[in-house]
Amino acid sequence: MSENKRERASEATAFALTDGVSPQFTTKLHVGRPNVGNFQEFVALAKSCWDSRYLTNNGPMVRRFEERLQEIMRVKHVICVTNCTVGIEIVLRSFKFKPGSEIIVPSFTFVASAHACANVGLRVRFADCNPRTHCIDVSSVRDLLTENTVAILAVNVWGNPCDDAALRSIAAQRNLKIVYDSAHAFNCSGFGGNGIRGSFGDAEVFSFHATKFFNSCEGGAVTTNNDAVARAVRQYRNFAFVDYDHVVGFGTNAKMSEMHAAAGLVNLKCLDRVIELNRRNYEEYKRGLGALKGIDLLEYDDDDDGSKWNYQYIVVRVDKKQFGISRDDLVVLLHAEGCLARKYFYPGVHRFEPYRRMDPDAEKRVPNTIAISSEVMTLPTGTAVDLHMIRNICALLANVERSRERLATFFSRAADVRVPPNPQGGSLPKSIEKITESPISEKSGG
Ligand SMILES: Cc1ncc(COP(=O)(O)O)c(C=O)c1O
Known about the structure:
This protein is of the alpha/beta class. The chain has 2 domains: 9-30 and 271-341 and 380-437, CATH 3.90.1150; 39-268, CATH 3.40.640.10. The chain is built from 18 helices and 13 strands. Strand 4, helix 7 (164-174) and strand 5 (177-181) form a beta-alpha-beta unit. The longest helix is centred in the middle third of the chain and has 19 residues, at 271-289. The two termini are 29 Å apart. The protein binds pyridoxal-5'-phosphate. Pyridoxal-5'-phosphate binds at residues 83-85, 109-110, 112-113, 155, 181, 183-184, 207, 209, 220, 446.
């Protein structure tokens, strides 16, 4: 039993955080709960790897997985890797940029996008994001170009497509590489379906981390239509060996294991079902949240034109002025109810060390990132929720709206005791303490 029936009408606007009633959801509802396929099928594939002693080094399972992904994405080359972060690194390594070269990266992304660039010796310059799509803002990219700029790492945030045509035209004028961090964008296509994600830029890199709607436990893939890029990426995935006796650069070990490929192959079978589920959940949230002022669901563009989405993120922007409660307070309140909403991508990568020290001016350049990262949260979807739970999450938010004045007073008092922290720790409501102490999940953000 995952939901707690609040049968008495008087409890409708009572909250676990403020009134001590039991949480609405007794089993916690997660954002990014892994979607998995049939375990017996996985066992059968894993056994065949085990028995053959082919456990890694581009074995038959990885090749099969790459073939299936190639069919789905209709792209010439798919190169499976250990994860998206290392995938971005090997793509950039394979371009052999001069040390100290600059790469333009959005600040509104998971920190891995910037780390991958910095880890290969590139200087990261942070661009702002577009307030509608949350993807990199093209005019912000133009403002950052210098004679040292060698590449743009654009992120297809929530599976939304970046403005590829505009980025391509900048790249062509300045002879830059474009790499897409498509960690969110597997099985999406923008631009009216003219190209499934996988075939844009010099390369795209996908994440198959457990929290993504499609996963291979850990994993990722580099995709490209460019033969030379594919060849180099395959080499850099394997220490930059070109044959037994020759190494051509600073490669690394980015090989996906056979077990991970087996998990990916099994989970791929559920792909359409999970997307359908995500879409159904998204439509239900759309119906349920439509009337709430100051709670704006990020809409996926109309897909009548052939565009495709994976609907893996339910993205909500909380406007404190209209809703009466800030995003941060709402996240605390929802957590106390067992609904583990997540802030995204707070506070903006440019504010993390060492980037803050390396690029202190970024703060002035990214107003959209600052505003959006302080107002956006994601809500549970996928197999973590059914329609009934979604209706209850929406009803909970409606009750918050109804109780906004009382809650605003509560939070203003709670803020008093939070800043500066109370040395005795006594007056902080227990549920807030718990939430601030425990990490949301093993990995925050991505
Ligand atoms: C935008 C973005 N880029 C990169 C990553 C890193 O992916 P991985 O965990 O596969 O390295 C993530 C995910 O977590 C992400 O959300």
